[in-house]
Write a structure and sequence with these properties.
The structure holds three protein chains of three kinds. Chain B is mainly α. Chain B is built from 14 helices and two strands. Chain C has helices at 2-26, 65-74, 121-131, 142-147, 152-155, 191-194, 205-211, 266-274, 285-294, 323-332, 335-343, 380-394, 409-425, 438-446, 465-468, 485-496, 500-517, and strands at residues 45-50, 79-82, 85-88, 96-97, 103-107, 171-175, 178-182, 228-234, 238-243, 257-262, 280-282, 299-312, 348-349, 399-406, 429-436, 452-457, 520-532, 536-537, 554-555. Classes of the chains: A mainly alpha, B mainly alpha, C alpha+beta. Chains A and C meet through α2, α4, α6 and α11 of A and α8 and α14 of C.
Chain lengths: 310, 335, 558
């Protein structure tokens, strides 16, 4: 196991390196300049600015330079933000998105699993239909609509929560809820499907035949086996939710990383795009790693490290 | 009185006619997997109703823009932001043509009815919603196909073979997903112009990844179970094991995940429209209608309501139908 | 959670620091205790919601309205803009002008930096030189060349032997309170107003050097000498100003605190306004109508100097060389509907190049007063007529136009509308909208890979020339390929003219020459509509200078 983990960490570094390189190269394909005032400058002045920022050097030189700085923790300065260091910017913005994302994930996952279990047990009954309808609505309406409705209902009409901002636990409730609904819907749906399947398996029938109570059957045998797909989905979902939800962050004026990313792509803010991609890719690669490890923990029959058992 | 001691003699018995061909004979007509599935699907009332509803929506999407006298880009600044009005149903508040108690139609001197209202350029939302449904259905179809044909196969191979194959395939997945969608799409847009084709390619490139991860997970769970071992012992080929045994057993998960990747694709397109990279103006999709509408959610909620309702209805039907299909095909769920 | 604790620690530290700083500085100045005369509220706090965060605090990097506004409120240059007029700020009064009008000698007022040291003439010299030092990577220093500061054009030109030798810039400290500015030619009329711009503000060498890379990265890494100091800045959340008691004109500053909240969604900003958490919010079309119904007294308008128009590419599209076709395009668009219904924010339909309400001439009249109606090409019927003529002249029956635009949700509606108007009023014209990210849009624009392009222009300085000289032959901003010898001559003549009146008349003539050719289709002059609580007074949003001018605003009792 230790050897496997070490090997995986090695692969992770390679993957990460490939992602950085690809992103870096694709940045160089982006047309135009990162200079906001480009429409006011003469070609001469533009060249001068390019020279200031080393953008006139050959791409391999820029690349090596970037990697060198990256290793030393310097991600460069943001063009949109007057060359303020990207590292500092990410350190301020990312934790906010992370906190919001984790809150939404925890709430959504726990409730989703519970609802899914209930719906799976009471298959094809009212509870099941109710849960599944809610779940479908949850995925077919985007989170920003919930955000808008929640804000209007609970911050403007009934002033229970602050309209916007990110200070104090009360300000977390509405944004986290609007993000959690989607997670909940997804998890509940998967959990229900898997529960239905698991509950039909022979070993469950055996367990019931042995005279175990329903709760014992569900909690000792069924849930554990139903968790595999949930873990698979939650992995990438966490990476996505945690790296920020553009519109929900905008609606609640949360200083996260979401909207920043779109802005930086649209304005060719290379250092910022690279920095954000690195955080995103890092998150993603680590979650996939954790998921692969968890597979084995939850179901000892699964060994990602080995091949087919023969 | 004694019973006569009748002897049971051998010749009282005649050998049964044991004919192997008869024992193999199937009494009733054989039912193929597909027929069996169809039979069970038809018995499932919810699934059947969903399918009918779905057909109605598809037909409506194809037909209703033609019934409207307005095109998708018929602008008229004299009739902007009109709430929905259907004269015959005007006793229902939703179709009264009133907003905040004021009859907006009377106020602006508008004689016609706009069933779903109009947007901020005075375009008929009925026409735009239904033609938007066409585009969203197309995107849904693409997303589902990509999921099934790329995602399932990729995940199946990766999970089943494991070791080096899995290692390589999963690293590729990590790279694809590690680079944010937006970077991909921007690059695509620079090569192609923004529009439906660029979106299709973007979905083709990235949408199947989650599905492949899920199928891979299922494969790893199932591949060491007894029925696979049995099949392998009987000499089944890898292809047969994957496509005949493992994938049908993961069908539930596959269908459920399709249910998620379809709305994801629809809203991905909407997000692209939102940042100006999606469907080209003046075309619309359900997603882009919702995106434009939500900015006025507090003022003109109806602009979000109808596209939202259609998306929800579509997905609910897809879901119930998907469940029906799963129940019909899944051997374990036979009752 | 831990993060927040750390943050509040940093915050309170900064707050404490700024308190200490102001306290230290406060000892010398006469504390202007303006007791509640009239209806002044006790709590002089103004809260504003704005979409933009501060991009930068470094005066050498500032190019956008938000950063420049911060500089205008926290720093003082030689002059200050208020209500579109300049007044002497750190310059104690009008300078001594040499006979050839090329040398200006300013006397400085007594003013302290926020760390208590006096602002000297050397600080101005350093500030201006830093703007021209390639090592500081200046972003907007071509303003020095526009004004004609001596040697600026050469210092900024990489091909010139003098490149980067900022010591040769035409600015000198005669003593610590006397500043001498030399120009290459007699100063243009906008000389005094442009001195209020951050690029011309003082910076202090010892402080900049001591801060090194940290300079201007946070409120405490910067020195202030203006009406306010920036007391806190939380990235992505907002920033807070506090009154600077040591500002020489502090008696005019009535607000004690000004808080900006960064809110990107207008609906959220409006909700904050409705629930009383902000006092001021900028509105978009729909919310203008909604708030006009609910809070009619609180809606304010102003007109900005942003001019929006369509570039018509006649360089690579031969059809568009046809004057009648360009006239048809100009006439086909109903600008009234655009401004009143779609934008609905006080924007004005425009058929002209230089905005109104932006600058007055030597006669004391607005530039637009001469031709208030602009240069309209006609209505939809005229458009059809021109189009018919153009079709005959060009021998075409159909025309496809590639319409590029930078993508943002605000321009989306406008794009649709303009495309629709052209297609509706010019039968046979097909417009395809191609929305692109800003950087790529600029590239397509510069490479003439479009037929029509939506664009806008904001002034670099307060003079009509900033809207006119960009249209001369082969200027990089002239993305139309239009070239007119008469126009070029008129612009050159106006630039060389040192007589304000004839220069003014020449520029008006040049605008007329240009609009006779319709190289562009002007669309509208941007307006701003905002909601402002009734207890906020003397707040303004002028068309030139600070975009949020609260320097003299105050709050009445409520």
């Amino acid at each position: 196991m230790v050897r496997y983990i070490l090997k995986r960490v090695g692969y992770m570094l390679v993957t990460f390196y490939v992602v950085i390189t690809l992103t870096f190269l694709s940045m160089k394909l982006l047309p135009g300049t990162p200079f906001k005032t480009a429409n006011r400058l003469t070609p001469q002045q533009l060249n001068q600015l390019r020279h200031y920022y080393g953008l006139d050097q050959p791409i391999p030189v820029q690349y090596v330079h970037y990697l060198w700085n990256f290793i030393h923790g310097d991600l460069g300065g943001s063009f949109q933000y007057g060359m303020q260091p990207v590292t500092q910017f990410l350190l301020q913005r990312f934790p906010v998105s992370l906190e919001l994302g984790v809150e939404a994930m925890i709430a959504g996952t726990i409730l989703g699993i519970l609802l899914g279990i209930v719906a799976g047990i009471y298959r094809a009954r009212f509870l099941d239909w109710g849960t599944m309808t809610f779940s479908v609505i949850g995925i077919s309406i985007p989170s920003f609509i919930f955000a808008g409705i929640l804000q209007y209902a609970f911050a403007v009409n009934v002033q229970l929560f602050p309209v916007a901002g990110w200070s104090g636990p009360m300000s977390h409730v509405l944004p986290a809820t609007s993000l959690a609904i989607g997670v909940l819907a997804l998890v509940a749906r998967f959990m229900r499907t898997e529960m239905v399947e698991v509950l039909n398996q022979d070993y469950i029938v055996t367990a019931q035949a042995k005279g175990l109570t329903t709760s014992a059957v569900v909690f000792r045998h069924a849930i554990r086996n139903a968790l595999i797909p949930i873990i698979t989905v939650i992995g990438p979902l966490t990476a996505a939710v945690v790296t920020g939800s553009l519109v929900v962050e905008n609606i609640f004026a949360i200083p996260g990383i979401g909207s920043q990313f779109v802005d930086s792509i649209v304005t060719n803010d290379y250092p910022m795009i690279m920095g954000t991609t690195e955080v995103y890719a890092g998150m993603f690669i680590i979650t996939i790693f954790i998921v692969d490890i968890l597979y084995g923990v939850i179901d000892p029959r699964i060994r990602v490290s080995g091949g087919q058992t023969s | 009185m004694m019973m006569p001691n009748t002897e049971i003699t051998k010749d009282m018995f005649a050998p049964a006619d044991i004919d192997h061909s008869v024992s193999e004979k199937i009494g009733r007509r054989s039912v193929s997997v597909w027929k069996d599935a169809l039979r069970r699907f038809v018995q499932n009332k919810g699934a059947l109703i969903s399918m009918i509803l779905l057909t109605i929506i598809i037909v409506a999407a194809l037909v209703s823009p033609h019934f409207s006298k307005y095109g998708i880009d018929d602008q008229d600044l004299n009739r902007v932001n009109l709430p929905p009005k259907i004269t015959a149903l005007s006793w229902i508040p939703l179709f009264s043509g009133k907003e905040g108690g004021v009859d907006v139609y009377k106020q602006n001197g508008i004689k016609q009815d706009f069933w779903f209202g109009t947007d901020s350029l005075g375009r008929d939302l009925w026409t735009r919603t239904w033609s938007g449904t066409q585009i969203s259905l197309f995107i849904a179809l693409i997303a589902a196909l990509v999921d099934l044909f790329i995602g399932v196969v990729y995940g199946g191979i990766s999970g089943y073979f494991g070791t080096t194959v899995d290692n390589i395939l999963q690293r590729i997945v990590e790279v694809i997903m590690g680079i944010p969608n937006l970077v991909w799409i921007i690059l695509l847009i620079l090569v192609m112009k923004p529009g439906l084709f660029a979106i299709t390619v973007a979905i083709l490139a990235t949408n199947w990844v989650t599905m492949s991860r899920i199928v891979r997970g299922e494969m790893m769970k199932l591949k060491n179970q007894e029925f696979v071992l049995a099949s392998r012992t009987l000499g089944a080929s890898n292809g047969r094991i994957i496509f005949r045994h493992l994938i049908p057993n993961s069908l539930g998960m596959i269908i459920v995940n399709t249910m998620f990747s379809v709305p994801n694709a629809i809203f991905f397109e909407a997000f692209l429209s939102f940042i100006g990279l999606g469907i080209r103006q003046p075309q619309a999709s359900l997603g882009s209608l919702i995106n434009t509408g939500y900015q006025q959610l507090q003022i003109h909620p109806y602009q979000t309501l109808y596209p939202g309702l259609i998306i929800s209805l579509l997905l609910i039907c897809f879901n119930i139908m998907g469940d029906g299909l799963r129940d019909a095909f899944d051997p374990k769920l036979r009752r | 959670m831990r993060n927040k604790a750390k943050w509040s620690l940093v915050l309170s530290f900064i707050l404490a620091l700024s308190l200490v700083l102001t306290a230290c500085g406060g000892s010398g100045s006469s504390s202007s205790s303006k007791s509640n005369s009239g209806g002044l509220a006790k709590d002089q706090t103004l809260k504003i919601a704005d979409v933009a965060d501060i991009p930068t605090l470094d005066p050498t990097q500032m190019t956008d309205a938000t950063s420049i506004n911060v500089a205008n409120m926290t720093m003082a240059g030689l002059t200050r803009m208020h209500d579109n007029k300049f007044s002497w700020d750190l310059a104690a009064g009008a300078p001594k002008v040499s006979a050839d009008k090329k040398t200006y000698t300013f006397k400085l007022r007594d003013q302290k930096w926020s760390d208590g040291k006096p602002v000297t003439a050397q600080d101005f010299v350093y500030g201006w030189q830093r703007q021209n030092d390639p090592a500081a990577k200046p972003a907007y220093n071509f303003l020095f060349a526009s004004v004609g500061i001596k040697n600026a054009a050469k210092i900024e030109n990489p091909k010139d032997p003098m490149y980067g030798k900022y010591k040769n810039l035409g600015i000198k400290a005669l003593d610590s309170k006397t500043l001498q500015v030399t120009l290459d030619q007699p100063a243009p009329p906008f000389f005094y107003s442009i001195l209020s711009v951050p690029q011309f503000m003082p910076q202090r060498e010892d402080f900049v050097k001591a801060q090194g890379k940290k300079y201007a990265t946070g409120p405490s890494n910067l020195l202030y000498n203006g009406p306010f100091v920036l007391s806190s800045w939380k990235q992505g959340t907002g920033y807070t100003y506090k009154k600077n008691k040591d500002y020489w004109d502090a008696s005019k500053t009535k607000l004690q605190t000004v808080e900006f909240k960064v809110v990107k969604e207008i609906s959220t900003a409006v909700n904050l306004y409705k629930t009383g958490q902000v006092d001021l919010v900028t509105l978009s079309a729909d919310y203008v109508n909604a708030l006009k119904k609910s809070n009619p007294q609180e809606i304010k308008h102003s007109i900005s100097s942003g001019m929006f128009f369509l570039y018509i590419n006649q360089k690579t599209n031969k059809n568009l060389k046809n004057l009648n076709l360009r006239k048809a395009i100009n006439a086909a668009i109903d600008r009234q509907g655009l401004a009143k219904t779609i934008l609905n924010d006080g924007s004005v339909p425009s058929t002209y190049v230089v905005p109104k309400g932006f600058v007055t001439g030597p006669d004391g009249k607005d530039f637009r007063a001469a031709v208030p109606g602009g240069y309209p090409a006609g209505n939809a019927a005229a458009a059809k007529k021109y189009w018919a003529q153009a079709k005959k002249e060009l021998g075409i029956s159909k025309l496809n136009l590639n319409f590029i635009s930078s993508d943002s949700s605000t321009t989306k509606q406008l794009d649709s509308y303009v495309a629709n108007q052209l297609e509706k009023n010019l039968p046979g014209v097909q417009v395809s909208i191609n929305a692109q990210p800003w950087a790529n849009y600029l590239k397509l624009n510069n490479e003439f890979k479009f037929d029509i392009a939506f664009s806008g222009w904001l002034p670099d300085y307060q003079d009509p020339m900033t809207y006119l000289d960009m249209w001369t032959t082969n200027q990089p901003q002239n993305s139309t390929g239009w070239s007119n010898k008469t126009f070029d001559k008129e612009i050159a003549a106006a630039k060389a003219d040192s007589n304000a009146s004839t220069r003014w008349a020449m520029m008006q003539k040049a605008e007329k020459t240009m609009m006779a050719d319709y190289p562009i289709a002007p669309l509208y002059q941007e307006g701003i509509t905002w909601a402002q609580k009734s207890y906020v007074k003397d707040f303004s949003r002028p068309s030139y200078g600070p975009v949020f001018d609260f320097a003299q605003a105050y709050i009445t009792k409520h």
